[in-house]
Design goal:
Cofactor: [4Fe-4S] cluster
CATH topology: TIM Barrel
Family: Belongs to the radical SAM superfamily. NifB family.
Oligomer: single chain
InterPro entries: Aldolase_TIM (IPR013785), rSAM (IPR007197), rSAM_sf (IPR058240)
Pfam families: Radical_SAM (PF04055)
Distance between the termini: 46 Å
Pathway: Cofactor biosynthesis; Fe-Mo cofactor biosynthesis
CATH superfamily: Aldolase class I
Number of strands: 9
Order of helices and strands: HEEEEHEHEHHEHHEHHEHH
Largest sheet: 9 strands, mixed
Number of helices: 11
Radius of gyration: 18 Å
CATH class: Alpha Beta
Length: about 270
Amino acid sequence: MEEYPRYLTPDSETFDPVELAERTRKIVCRGDERKYTRFYATGVYGGIATGYTCGCCLRCVFCWVDRSRDFPEKLGSFYSPREAFERLSEAARSYGTRKLRISGAEPTLCKDHLIGLLDRVEDSEFGPFILETNGIPFGVDEDYVEKISEFDKPHVRVSLKAGTPEAFSRKTGAKPQFFEIPFKAIRNLLKHGVSFHVAGMMDDPRIVTSRERSELARRLKEIHPKLLRYFEGEVVDPYESTIKRLKASGFSLSWPLKESYPPLWKEYE
């Protein structure tokens, strides 16, 4: 078996992210249990309780997640849906918020765990539940998206990593032919009426070209015009983990960011 991918380097072999998702599930999923490193509340989304997950099926060079993305076998502990809900509830009450999320690496990897957790959230005082994803699991498993649609409280944030297959491969380590999968996830979410919006690392001129932005805008408009209007643009933030990954992969960015692109919809709607 090939070595488990960690940090990207200029010499890294590209990989199949669907296969990597399955390999990672064997590490971070156990029945309906899932690995987390911690539970806490933070000020994003206006204040939200967060479960920080381990393990991912992409290796984004601008990723801010700690070493639990790359070494999921070494970090984190298993929690059942009930235990995760209890920890999220405690964090939410202590912070004074009703919003919950699971974040960190790829929160949707452990299907049974997530469905069990959403069952508990649905019947609770808490909500909405923000579900962040890179789109790979939802793009290859439409039945999974259909299950999510049975709940009222989830709102999905699909984070796109690039605007072209070549850039996707260079920035995530995945083979370029898998670039289409997150767009399939978006179509699945639309088809099944799940609340969601699309985000992406598209506002940072240091790591994305204007051509790449225009290609992404074109693809989103072809799926549905509203996707562009509500697109959440991102820039690379200088977290310690991010800087290490950028350096290892051969990307050289100057800090601080001096100017960002305007919102995607202002240029391409």
